[in-house]
Amino acid sequence: MNSASRYSLPALGHNPSSARQGTTPGSFANPPEVGGPRTFSSPDTPGMPAPSDKTAWDFMPADWRRSSDGRRLAVSVRPELAPANAYAYEPPAGFEPITQLEFARLGQITPEMRRVAEREPHLSAEEIRDEIAAGRMVIPANRIHLANRLDPMAIGRASRTKVNANMGASPISSGTHEEVEKLRWAERWEADTVMDLSTGGDVEKTREAICRAATVPIGTVPIYSMILGRKIEELDASCVLETLKRQAEQGVDYFTIHAGVRRAHLPFVSKRLIGIVSRGGSLLAKWMIHHEQENLMAQIWDDICELVRQYDVTFSIGDGLRPGGLADATDAAQLGELEALGELTERAWRHGCQVMIEGPGHVPFDQIEFNMKLQRRLCHGAPFYVLGPLVTDMFPGYDHITSAIGATAAAYHGAAMLCYVTPKEHLGLPKKDDVKQGCVAYKIAAHAADVALGIPSARDRDDELTKARAALNWEKHFELSFDPDLARAYHDEDLDVDTDFCAMCGHDWCSVRISKEIGIFVSGKDADYQWDKPKISAALNPAQREILIQRGVLSPAEVHRLASKTKTVMGATGQKAACHSDVVDDSAAQHLQAERLDPLTLEPIEPVIEDVRA
Amino acid sequence: MNSASRYSLPALGHNPSSARQGTTPGSFANPPEVGGPRTFSSPDTPGMPAPSDKTAWDFMPADWRRSSDGRRLAVSVRPELAPANAYAYEPPAGFEPITQLEFARLGQITPEMRRVAEREPHLSAEEIRDEIAAGRMVIPANRIHLANRLDPMAIGRASRTKVNANMGASPISSGTHEEVEKLRWAERWEADTVMDLSTGGDVEKTREAICRAATVPIGTVPIYSMILGRKIEELDASCVLETLKRQAEQGVDYFTIHAGVRRAHLPFVSKRLIGIVSRGGSLLAKWMIHHEQENLMAQIWDDICELVRQYDVTFSIGDGLRPGGLADATDAAQLGELEALGELTERAWRHGCQVMIEGPGHVPFDQIEFNMKLQRRLCHGAPFYVLGPLVTDMFPGYDHITSAIGATAAAYHGAAMLCYVTPKEHLGLPKKDDVKQGCVAYKIAAHAADVALGIPSARDRDDELTKARAALNWEKHFELSFDPDLARAYHDEDLDVDTDFCAMCGHDWCSVRISKEIGIFVSGKDADYQWDKPKISAALNPAQREILIQRGVLSPAEVHRLASKTKTVMGATGQKAACHSDVVDDSAAQHLQAERLDPLTLEPIEPVIEDVRA
User: Fold this and answer.
1) 226-255 in chain A: CB under 8 A from chain B
2) In chain B, which residues have their Cβ closer than 8 Å to the Cβ of A551?
3) A485 touches chain B (CB under 8 A)
4) Does residue B407 contact residue B418 with C-beta atoms inside 8 Å?
5) Quick check: B6 and A601 CB within 8 A?
6) Using 50, 70 and 90 to split pLDDT, how confident is the model at B576?
7) Does A7 contact B at CB distance below 8 Å?
């Protein structure tokens, strides 16, 4: 039967491998349209909202005038995709641009845009400028933080997917030093931004220290500070503006402000299974009910915009009505607020402010695409920054997984930044390892989406690792892993010899080894990946040792041995080791396997180890 | 601005909540079409292959004759969806049905079909029979295993998504007893089937013991036994058939047989980054190259069919050419094999055998839908049983997460069973905790897909848990969790008092608590979920204690205290405790929080604890 008559491949997008290695036909996402509303995007299933036909160019400050020369800015690779109204403008006399958006609107490339182009080489500085001008990208970079250690980065669907890690002291707080340590830990696990959600301890001093120390942008939810020592009912405009000013002066790069929750939405909330689960949202709902007024933040939105513009603090307009369970997803309250977020975006753009939008939360897997594409429409492409979403509610303790599933789909369908969820979500405060687990799960989600979207070169490290795997080159395998210590520790738990098989299948059963034996496959033969001889792996470093202790599979004595072994002690010679299928014969392989523990009973085979190692 | 003009909801499928609780509009998947080719299905993005217009009714045994009365079987709720050619047939004289497929073709409902209908109440026994007759569902139930302890279950996209857990001894094997323990552990974490992949120890005795002990179907890859003590090159037809017969007599419920790898596919493999990663596939490739013959399994396929039919062993036709990295996904080798799997399916159906198909592996997120829908087309709806797939290669040590992401998408787009991947994948043999982690990650994936597909009542437990969460009813929250011990332990790590907040936000910052205070929301007011008073939680049980010890956050003394506390010791009174927002005033809340450890420094605040607990 003929393949062509039975199926055809869907239209293909860009190959995410820079070298087009391997045999995959390439990404099935849409071809890239940087400069247009779809930049990198998934194909639409039927019924999905189309992108907005507007951009930030349609919401210019009232006192800017179009240049008389009719010159166009923000051109796209495909001119028909370029934003409407992207003409050269003249600001009022004496105007000094401050925000990245303002520079972009004037056609200027800032040092921050250049730095982003260095960090995201699939985009040029010009493309970054044009994405910012269109409102589809932000560089959260408070000018005060820039004067410190901030390394500028961008959030937008044209760039790689970003990950945020939350931290912050609770009312029984840790000290400033501990918070800075947590910041370093999140940076270690490659969080792209960090939110300081402190509600206890010396929050001012802590925030100051974090802003000084951070190389990544710092976000806050300023309402938390506004109600310290004050009831929510007492909140007024001057308190709001004072708090925002103080935090802006400290160098906070983006503010979550829940200005989209409105009185008209509250009746929809009453039908929910779990009401309001956003802290800011619930506080402002209480304020509105008490004062019988519209949301205070919305009332003074123009004042807030003018204030944050002076520092180029980016808005992260909060979704106070995000669903707290699958049963409340995509409901009238949530979508009503999303419309309000779109209007707030338009107003903020008119003030020259950079904007991103926060999103849910808990959303069934089938509803994620719609949620992402509706935001793209209603908020005219402003970057979407989502929390998860969790795709099931019944796995507390594993919500880094339930939400990483949703986060991957969210990023593939349009979200630009993913706020991590840790295993402690819904149960308590994340500990150090929870922060790591959350970061890793979300780096997985972000990376998987970037590969799927066909972002150029996104798949290169996967391919390099696959080549190392094909060569059974363990050292390269670990080096290329996101968490090399963990991978090395897990490997050595069973077999601390780097050879042409692993303990999972053993020598005789290793398909990769067999595949290498089949000459015509040429599998794992890349010259750069070849080794000469099997070797005892290096001694466990402290991090690897800690991982194995925590797993609790090996006896303390066995972990100690792995941590103290050296090549000479173990009789290994030379610096190179091999992964050729023919360097270990069957009996040698059996011996290598037998000298380790029994991986099935979970008991160390101590006598055997003593015999061999003595 | 009017919502209706700005967007509309996509066409809606079935609401997965039996009570339609909450405010979500319902599933965005296609409406159910049980009886037709789409049963429960995701909407197609452009370019996806349509379902096959054939079913198992189109591949009847040559000696069955259509009844002269022209009566139709296998009617659907919507007659236009019912399979073509689902007419009443007359088998040859003296024919005795053995397999579930044969009974279904004769219009008979077996006790196993009835049992499945009990376990999956959204389907009637008649619907199950008709799905089986169409080839879209299997009940893997060897008649010998049925005579032991097997509790029949079904695999097919009309039923809930199933999860398989792999186990098995390596060449340094554990004993039979340990393998049975591992079986029990996988059943404890709700694996729906278990594959015994033993390649070492007394594999015969182990398999026998597992088949006797298992209440879930057992699968094997019989080629592993065929080459014990024999080189792959020595494999011949009689060895294959003898091994299959022996395992069938032991009660194995399904066999993975890699009959789809063909000589014509091997040239495609040579261009791959990582050749063949299936053990069975690599062995048979080696056999074909050595003998310069077509795949032995394919050569004797009809004999194999006749043999397995006698026991009603279900085929799980293996994908020996599944990709081993993103770079090799959806390539000519993989799709060529998939076509061969379709032809093997047709032939097996003609012999009356039940069939499912195995699938990849490593597949970028964007390519998953196509892979699932192409299988549905080429294999005429035979259930798809996939391994993951992993959506990135560069996170070894976390592949239960990388693959649970792919598995959710796979099930949503059509896969019927998900083979778990553990954190040890690619690195070594899974230990007991890895088995648990793999099972949990895959139960998440399976469940999330069932909710997304709109399978009736799939969301009920999520909704119940959300209601408990809204009421801040911790006991119910934990009871409804998939892993109650873990959830309880994580909660008590910070705050071993069940009250109307948790340590994540603390009393003043609990949005759920605030939401409850806002009278009009009526959040968490369900009468069944109300408690009266805060109470000290129960002492940690051994499992919970173990979880906290392994986390390593608390001091041993602190874990001991949590494990030995009792209500009376802690001064709590009564059996009920409350989660009303107004039962704990601010100062009491501060006190409850302060008497626990500092969750941020990760150090126990021993003096404070002593003061309070003394």
Assistant:
1) none
2) 431, 433
3) no
4) yes
5) no
6) very low
7) yes
pLDDT at A567 over 50: no
Kind and range of the H or E element at B89? strand B89-90
CB contact under 8 A, A365 and B451: yes
The answer to whether the CB of B196 falls within 8 A of the CB of B219 is: yes
Confidence of residue A518 (pLDDT cuts 50, 70, 90): confident
Per-residue pLDDT reduced to its tens digit, B406-464: 999 999 999 999 999 999 999 988 888 999 999 999 999 999 999 999 999 999 999 99
**B99-116 tens-digit pLDDT:** 999 999 999 999 999 999
Angle at A291 between CA A287 and CA A297, to 5 degrees: 50
Tell me whether residues B408 and A423 touch, CB distance under 8 A.
no
Contact B334, B321 (CB under 8 A): yes
CB-CB contact of B235 with A489 (8 Å)? no
CA-closest candidate to residue B131, choices B60, B52, B33: B33
User: What's chain B's average pLDDT?
Assistant: 89
User: Which of B13, B409, B469 has the CB atom closest to A426's CB atom?
Assistant: B469
- Token pair listed for B82: 């019912």
For A398-442, the pLDDT digits (tens) are 999 999 999 999 999 999 999 999 999 999 888 889 999 999 999
The pLDDT assigned to A521 comes to 66
Q: Do A600 and B173 touch (CB under 8 A)?
A: yes
In terms of DSSP bridges, do strands B162-167 and B417-419 run parallel, antiparallel, or are they unpaired? parallel
Strands A218-220 and B162-167: unpaired
**CA gap B203, B229 in Å, rounded:** 12
Cross-chain residue pair B21–A424, CB shorter than 8 Å:
no
Burial of A170 (0-12, 13-18, 19+ CB in 10 A): buried
pLDDT for the residue numbered B588:
60
Q: Does A14 touch chain B (CB under 8 A)?
A: no
Three-state DSSP state, B193: strand
Say whether pLDDT at A570 is over 60: no
Residue to substitute from A197, A466, A476, A482, interface B, most B β-carbons within 10 A: A466
Interface contact flag, A466 B200, Cβ < 8 Å: no
Q: Which residues of A touch B170 (CB under 8 A)?
A: 503-506, 509, 593, 599-600
Q: What is the DSSP string of B552-568?
A: T-S-HHHHHHHHH--TT
- For chain A, the C-alpha Rg in angstroms (whole number) is 27
- Alpha-carbon distance of A404 to A231, in angstroms, equals 36
pLDDT tens digit string along A275-296?
999 999 999 999 999 999 999 9
User: Mind spelling out the 3-state secondary structure of B49-81?
Assistant: CCCCCCCHHHCCCCCCEECCCCCECCCCCCHHH
Of residues A441 and A604, more confidently modeled: A441
Query: Which chain B residues are within 8 Å of A550, Cβ to Cβ?
Result: 550, 552
* Residues 6 or more apart in contact with residue B93 via CB below 8 angstroms: none
Chain A, 348 to 377: residues with Cβ < 8 Å from chain B are: 364-367, 369-370, 374, 377
- What count of other Cβ atoms lies within 10 Å of the Cβ of residue B585? 10
Q: Tell me if the pTM is above 0.80.
A: yes
Task: State the Cα–Cα distance between residues A338 and A344, nearest whole angstrom.
Answer: 10
Judged by CB atoms closer than 8 Å, whether chains meet at B412 and A480 is answered as: no
Comparing A200 with B444, the larger pLDDT belongs to B444
Q: If contacts are CB pairs under 8 Å, which of residues 526-565 in chain A contact chain B?
A: 550-553
Return d(Cα A389, Cα A404) in angstroms, integer. Answer: 8
Contact B266 A520 (CB under 8 A): yes
Closest to A14 (Cα-Cα) out of A34, A28, A35: A28
Separation of alpha carbons B260 and B317, rounded Å: 8
